[in-house]
Amino acid sequence: MTANLLPVTNDYHTLPRLTSGLFRRQATAFFYAQVFMIVLKASRLAKKGRYGNAQWIKSSINTLKALESVGGRFDIENVAAHAMLASPCVFIANHMSVLETFILPGLIQPQRDVTFVVKASLIDYPLFRHVMRSRNPIVVGRANPRQDLRTVLEEGQKRLNSQVSIVIFPQTTRSIEFEPGDFNTLGIKLAKRARVPVVPIALKTDAWGLGGKLKDFGKIRPAKTVHICFGEPLRVKGSGKEEHRIVVDFITSKLKEWH
Predict the structure, then answer these.
(1) 214-236: per-residue pLDDT in tens?
(2) Are 145 and 195 in contact (CB under 8 A)?
(3) Residue 120, φ and ψ in degrees, nearest 5
(4) How far apart are CA 84 and CA 219, in angstroms?
(5) Cβ(141)–Cβ(124) below 8 Å
(6) From CA 207, how far away is CA 203, in angstroms rounded?
(7) Sign of the dihedral through C-alpha 95, 101, 102, 104
(8) What values do phi and psi take at 175, rounded to 5?
(9) 77 and 153 in contact (C-beta within 8 Å)?
């Protein structure tokens, strides 16, 4: 664990600031130029085996600041929800854009070691692959749900036993709309098996839009506020159906509130 680089104890809200009209009009170009440099520097360090927790947090916070520099705003709530947990946990979140994979490390890693469940293509993604591999993620193929379940349960328990918490996005793909029927129970199953708490996270990150041919690189819309809210930890009891319902209801209610 490493000290945070943002003044976040529980909540963080972007302060009003003057942003150049040029930066707002050309937000997509200016933002991606900054992110490219952030990822390039991180990749070089990762290739040398020097991309540790502190560097990961710094990359995350620099990405947040890059979006703020083009007029983006963040409303982050209840970051300390999991701070007092004595054990690692499973963070279960909706998946709206690639922005959350950049921002969440800067919010979680200062309090507890964490990694992600990621699709296999990210491990081979140009430039970014060195960073992802350095974080020891759980890699799934998405082609065989049964194999993915086995991988997440087995590899996830290994990480949790090593005091590393896990972020999982149970949706099959990133989507602006949240469909509860597409939100599987994989995170609940993992938490139940490892006997660790679940922490829900509701995310509205469509300020980083979805692209066409390159889905990861859509239009940047700084007028859309980025919302992130951590829910209270849950212990999985029985089948886990009730806890799954609570997670889904939490995300649904926050998205309705933000819309």
Answers:
(1) 677 899 999 999 999 999 999 99
(2) no
(3) -60, -30
(4) 38
(5) no
(6) 11
(7) positive
(8) -155, 140
(9) no
**Tokens matching residue 249:** 């209801």
Question: How deeply is 17 buried, as exposed, middle or buried, from its count of CB atoms within 10 A (0-12, 13-18, 19+)?
Answer: exposed
Which structure tokens are listed for 254? 């926050």
Pairing outcome for strands 226-230 and 74-77: parallel
Where are the strands (E) in the chain, listed by range?
Answer: 12-13, 74-77, 90-93, 114-119, 138-140, 165-168, 198-204, 226-230
Please state whether 190 falls in left (phi above 0), alpha (psi between -120 and 50) or beta. alpha
Q: Do 231 and 199 meet the contact criterion of CB atoms below 8 Å apart?
A: yes
Overall pTM surpassing 0.90 (yes/no):
yes
- Give the pLDDT score at 1: 46
Question: Encoding tokens for residue 224?
Answer: 């859309």
pLDDT, mean of residues 245-257: 97
Only one residue has tokens 């990621």, namely 118
Which tens digits make up the pLDDT trace of 32-64? 999 999 999 999 999 999 999 999 999 999 999
Residues in the chain: 259
DSSP β-bridge partners for residue 168: 92
Neighbours of 97 (CB within 10 A): 22
Rounded Cα distance between 49 and 93, Å, is: 29
Residue 147 φ then ψ, to 5° = -70, -40
Residue pair 70/31 in contact (Cβ under 8 Å)? The answer is yes
Give the C-alpha distances (Å, rounded to integers) separating 19 from 15, 51, 63, 66, 85.
12, 32, 17, 12, 39
114 contacts 7 by C-beta, under 8 angstroms: no
